[in-house]
Amino acid sequence: MNLLQASGIRRTYGSLQVLKGIDLEVKKGEVVAIVGPSGAGKSTFLHILGTLDRPDEGQVLIEGVNVFTQKDKDLAKFRNEKIGFIFQFHNLLAEFTALENTCMPGYINGLGNEKEIISRGKELLEMLGLSGRMDHLPSQLSGGEQQRVAVARALLNKPSIVLADEPSGNLDSHNALDLHQLFFKLRDDFGQTFVIVTHNEELAEMADRRLVMQDGMMLP
Ligand SMILES: Nc1ncnc2c1ncn2[C@@H]1O[C@H](COP(=O)(O)OP(=O)(O)OP(=O)(O)O)[C@@H](O)[C@H]1O
Prior knowledge:
Blueprint: E1 4-13, E2 16-26, E3 31-35, H1 42-49, E4 57-62, E5 65-66, H2 72-82, E6 83-87, H3 98-109, H4 114-127, H5 143-155, E7 161-165, H6 173-190, E8 193-197, H7 201-206, E9 209-214, E10 217-218
Parallel strand pairs: 3-8, 3-9, 6-7, 7-8
Antiparallel strand pairs: 1-2, 1-4, 4-5, 9-10
Helix pairs in contact: 3-4, 3-5, 5-6
Adenosine-5'-triphosphate (ATP) binds near residues 13, 40 and 43.
GO molecular function: ATP binding; ATP hydrolysis activity; transmembrane transporter activity
Protein name: ABC transporter ATP-binding protein
Pfam families: ABC_tran (PF00005)
């Protein structure tokens, strides 16, 4: 069974047809990269896969659940439990430490008690080489460190799938490579599944599949 299956996804903004019927199947443990020119609809598609936006037509199954048949409240719970997000700008909360930011998805959904959540957060930050940075605020971290905290936060609830939108777009080439290698390590060690929208060809070439979107369609 596919971990994620999207079929016939269409999305229109006003008179602009942004997605023109897109299909995608992703297996557990796959790293799929989506590339394509600016304005092709990549981010729009990723937002729909992440249930942050609803399509006009088409369906998305994640672990067999037809996600958009759920009401908004149930969908939000499903999203927090099953999907991890990494964005170009990490969106860490400035007034919270690295550990507090990492633990945030656990507090929102109440998965486990506070002690368990903190223990998982610490374990992730240690794994990502941030054991000495747990009590730092985002402003006290380098760009690469901030993005690794965002990765730890994305993994906190043990999501089925991680969706990343230009995750290394704001990093220098050294930190970008480190981050890309981290994704593949997480895949190899834990079977973590990723769909990554990127303009970084090096990352796209490393992926199990490199898909190209153009003008609202997936090229064959
Ligand atoms: N909320 C919105 N309202 C209106 N138009 C939108 C909205 N979101 C996206 N669009 C339009 O949809 C098209 C696709 O945008 P999208 O961000 O998905 O492209 P992209 O392939 O991710 O581009 P980039 O590589 O530059 O990030 C663009 O023309 C954009 O202006």
